[in-house]
Every structure is written in C-alpha cells, then in structure tokens.
Amino acid sequence: MIVLGLSGLPHAQEHLRRTHPDLSPLDERIVQGLDSAAALVVDGRLVAAASEERFTGEKGTGRLPEQAIAWCLREARVTPDDVDLIAHGFDYDRHRRTFEITGAPFDEVYSSATVIDGLTGLGWTRVAERFRSVRHHEAHAESALVPSGFDRALCIVSDGMGETESLSVFRAVDGTLERLHTTPIASSLGILYSIATRFLGFQFNNDEYKVMGLAPYGDPERFRPVFEKLARVDADRGTVSIDWPTNGLADAEQGYPHARAFLAEASFTPRTPDGGIHRDEADFAAALQDRLTTLLVELTSVWLERTGERNLCLAGGTFLNCKSNQSIAALPGVDAMFVQPASGDDGTALGAAWHVARGEGGGLAPVTGAFDPYLGPRYDPDEVRAALEARPDLRWTHVGETAEYFAAAAADIAADRIVAWFSGRMEFGPRALGNRSILARPDGDRIKERINGAVKFREAFRPFAPAVLDEDVDRLFVTRGFEPDRYMLCTAQVRPEARTVVEGIVHADDSARIQTVRDDLAPGFTRLLREVKARTGAGVVVNTSFNVKGQPLIMDPGTALDTFAGIALDRLYIEGYVVEGTATGVA
After folding, report:
1. What are the residue boundaries of the Carbamoyltransferase C-terminal domain, all occurrences included (predicted)?
2. How far apart are CA 537 and CA 134, in angstroms?
3. 154 is a domain residue
4. Could you tell me the residue range of the domain that residue 108 belongs to?
5. CATH number of the domain that residue 400 is part of
C-alpha cells in the first residue's frame, strides 16, 4: 500500500494577494495552508518527505507541492498510478456550509477540489476516488504520535487554527486517537503570539521565532498584567480563554489592526524593527513569552492529571516554541515526551499519510528507533562535481569522505573558522540538524557577531544553537534528556562551569536550544563532532541552518555553491569536496 501525504492549500495566498492588492509584506502570511509539503508512506514505512519551499526558493509557500511530490515518487521509484491513496492534512469540506455563510472563498481556497484539480492538472488520474481529507489537528496529532512509539499518550495540538479549532487535546491508546477537547479559533494561542509578533513590526506567521529570541533580553514584569488579563486557563474546563475586545480579530488581512490597537493602548507604541534591542519591545516580548509558557504548562498539567497519562506528544506550530517546551518537559507528571520536528503545517503531510495508512492501508511499520528527520533529497559526488564544474569562480578539491576529510573540517572549526557542512539527505522541518548546516566553534572570537552579521545577515539579538555529542550533554547542559533535545525543539540551561566552553551559544537567559547528536541518526555528523572534541576537548559546535535571511534551508549543490559564494564562509564541505574562495577550479 502506497499513501501520498500532502499539506498546503494551493490557492490561498494567491487569493489573498489578488483580493488585497495593497497588502503589507508583513501580512502576506495571514492565510491558511502555507508550508506545503509531500510525504510518501510505502507499506506502512515513511520513505520520503520534503517541503515545496526547498525546490522553489519561496519560503513557506503553500502552493501545490508538485516538485516535492515528484521527488518523493522518484525516491521510491513509483509512478502516480502506483499511489493507492492520497491524504491531505485539511478537511474543510465538512464545514462548507459554515464557511459559505461567513462569505469565505470556499470553492476557490478551502475546498479539497483545489488539491484534486491541481493533481488532475498535472496528469494524475482517478484523483477524487483516491483522495482522503484528514482533519487538520488529527493530522498534527498523528505526526507526533506515530514516531513517538508510545502505546498510549496525551496528545496536544496547538497552532493558529485548524479548520475551526486552534487547540485540540487527544488521548491515544494503541494508535487510536480519542478527541477530548477543542478550543475555538477566537481563543487561539497561535494567533495571539502571531498578532503580538505583528505588533512588534515582524511578519505574521513567520517571525515568531524572532520574538522568542528577543524575549530573554527583556523583563516580563512590566507588561505581565496585559497578558494576564487577556489570556488564562480555565482549569475546570481544561481550556484556554482569550478575551479580545469586540471585533478584536476583525480585518485579519490588514494585520489585525483592532487587536494591535488594543495592545498599543494597553502597553506602548512599538518602533519599526532596526535589528537592535530596545527596552519596550524586549519587555513586551518577554511578557508574551512568559504568558505563553505559563498557559501551556497549566493546560498540560490539567490534562495530564485528568487522563493519568505520563507520555506526552505535542505538535502544531505553537510547539516550535522551544522555551515553552523546556518548561513543559520539566513537569513532574511527564515521563517521556515527543515533539514532531516538523510541527508546523508541513508536518501534517506526514500525519495525514500515517493516519490514512493506519486506517485503510493495512497498518504502520513498527517503530524500532528514534524518528529519522533526514527524509529529503541527497546528492552523489558526481552531481556535486557537475555543480562545481559549472562554477569556475570557485576553487575546490576532492578528498572523499575519508578520515582526512573529517579531520580537515574539524581542524577548521577548532581554528575558529566558519564552515558549511552539506551531507546526506536534507532535513525535514525547519531545523538544520547537521546535514545542511553552518558550523563554528562555540567559544570562537565574536562568533555570534560574525555569523549574524557577515554570514546570515540577520538581527544581532538572534541566538544560535549548539549541536553536542550525547556523551557530552550532561557536563555542559541541564536537561531531562527527552527526545525533543535531538531535534532542537527544547532549550536547556547551560551549566555555569561550562559557560566559557560554549559562550557563543549561551542566550541572555543562560539557555541554549540544543541538538544532541548520536550515531543512530547522524553517524557522519557524530564522527565530525568527535574529531572536533579531539581538538578542542568538547564535542560541541555552533549549528545554524545553511541559508541566509529570507532563504529556505538549502537543498541542492547548486544553491549551496551560489550561497557560499555570496557570504563570508571560510570553507564548504560538501559530499567529500572541499570548496574554498574564488579561484580556478582544480580536480
């Protein structure tokens, strides 16, 4: 049985732009169905997954993921006719009447026909009879439950919105999801955080991570009353309530002006972001982050107590907030925890495929180890050589993935050089986990300033994450060791005695968003970190995504070379090739 999973609503952003020609760039993502992706499950086993943005270069695109689909099929060596079922991570059709009453563009944007017609237009046949719509939050829940390997768990989904809900609570027993609670869109934690992001002058539904990065520089006390009055958990009902003023959520496409006016009246008038750290904005971000964390911890505690479950699965864009995840992981009622690395809507392609495969496809393959996020394209040395030979401006040598190759990369890092590392299959999800990464020594000279300024071209307050050998985690960081640590989904406090070793990745609150590295998932990256440890005494590096501001994570060798040539990297290590600055190519 072959099941293709899809995410995205192909015409949503196009409709928004056409109907709002004066749309601010900050509001271009106030729309459902972004982050389109494709995933392929063959005989119950996930074999491939990729986001469309990596192929097109349009960050977060929601267009029909035709290139991602084509790649998944090529990877599995199957054709469109071989696909038994097509699973989509939205089920708006059941709410057609509700949306039509509100005047929403149902047929053009929300109907499953938009995806069915898109595939048909690509030459697919019998699409409607193979097509299955999966409720959005069920797709999110499955995306975390299936790879967790838990026989039973409490599953919580929180995002901007599903079809009509913003938060869902499930109990999972032996692979069956029982929906226990939903919270309506009007009380969406995801929308609250995104409106506050837009209030601070950042892009809605894209720059929330910037606000999370800014928060540790502020004092939450100053604006704490604003958010305590606005949002709370009702422990008796087990729900979140957000008390926006009347019509506070109106005119969404204009950046929720009424909600932003309410926040301004209650707090301050923000300035246009200039990359710096300013007291008002930092204090506001701190209060927002503190309130989100408090609400999620309170809500999770309520449902852990009600259900008696000890295993926790989390998904939805809200749970890409690694600071909140750290506090949830610290709850004494949690014995084990899994967060889907692709917790945004791209992950619903996985969840929808698994949901349909489980229900109609004869079941899923047993979970035998940690979830492998390296699900995207890989490139062999001949493909890399062809890309290099097309760039006579770059100087390169071929070493092969030998001991010399790993030693050279480690020596560069130990010598305080900044390198790019391109190896194996591309990561699925927003985090670079060592296969498409920029790496550096965490105690390097002004390392944060150098990477933010000359390499990534991004705000100075943005933190970096460490990738650290599993064997070195406990001496550097304080963590419970749950699975999110493997995927940069949870921050950990830096041990005071280790601060000088990892100075460049310590954030303002003494935390770091760690990635623990082990042989089972990343043998090549583990090997590199061991070489680094042999030279520096610690198996830890700065690990940030190989891209620049506004660019999706790099997928292919050509894009890697183009990007390398335009930024201040010392070397690029790519599938056994070492690329240096401009010169004449040599074999």
Report:
1. 410-580
2. 49
3. no
4. 2-147+344-360
5. 3.90.870.20
Mean pLDDT (the chain, rounded): 95
Token output for 505: 């990745």
What are the pLDDT digits (tens) for 66-109?
Answer: 999 999 999 999 999 999 999 999 999 999 988 888 878 999 99
334: closest CA among 303, 311, 315? 311
Q: Could you report the per-residue pLDDT of 344-357, keeping only the tens digit for each?
A: 999 999 999 999 99
CA of residue 42 relative to chain centroid, distance? 24
d(CA 317, CA 329): 17
What is the total count of domains within the chain? Answer: 3
Going 502 to 504 to 505 to 509, the CA torsion angle's sign is: positive
Same domain, 352 and 396: no
Residues 471 and 487 reside in one and the same domain: yes
Same domain, 412 and 489: yes
Count the neighbouring beta carbons within 10 Å of the beta carbon of residue 275.
11
Q: Is the pLDDT of residue 585 over 60?
A: no
**Sequential DSSP letters for 80-121:** GGG--EEEES--GGGGHHHHHHTT--IIIIISTHHHHHHHHH
Report the Cα–Cα distance between both ends of the chain, in Å, rounded. Answer: 45
* Domain endpoint, select from 307, 339, 371: 339
| Model pLDDT, residue 20 | 94
Looking at the fold, whether 316 and 435 belong to one and the same domain comes out as: no
Length of the chain: 587
Does residue 417 lie in a domain region?
yes
Rounded percentage of the chain residues whose pLDDT exceeds 70: 99
Q: What amino acid is encoded at 447 in this protein?
A: I
Read off the pLDDT of residues 425-438 as tens digits, 9 standing for 90 and up: 999 999 999 999 99
Q: Do 356 and 442 belong to one domain?
A: no
Domain assignment present for 330: yes
* Averaged pLDDT for residues 458-466: 84
- The type of residue at 556 is D
Position of tokens 């837009």? 198
* Judgement on whether residues 492 and 574 belong to the same structural domain of the protein: yes
Q: Contact at 8 Å (CB) between 144 and 325?
A: no
pLDDT at 98: 85
Tokens 């309520």 identify what position? 302
Helices and strands, number each (H, E), in the chain: 20, 23
Question: Domain for residue 175, yes or no?
Answer: no
- Residue 465's nearest CA partner among 402, 513, 516 is 513
Q: Are residues 476 and 536 in the same domain?
A: yes
Using 50, 70 and 90 to split pLDDT, how confident is the model at 451?
A: confident
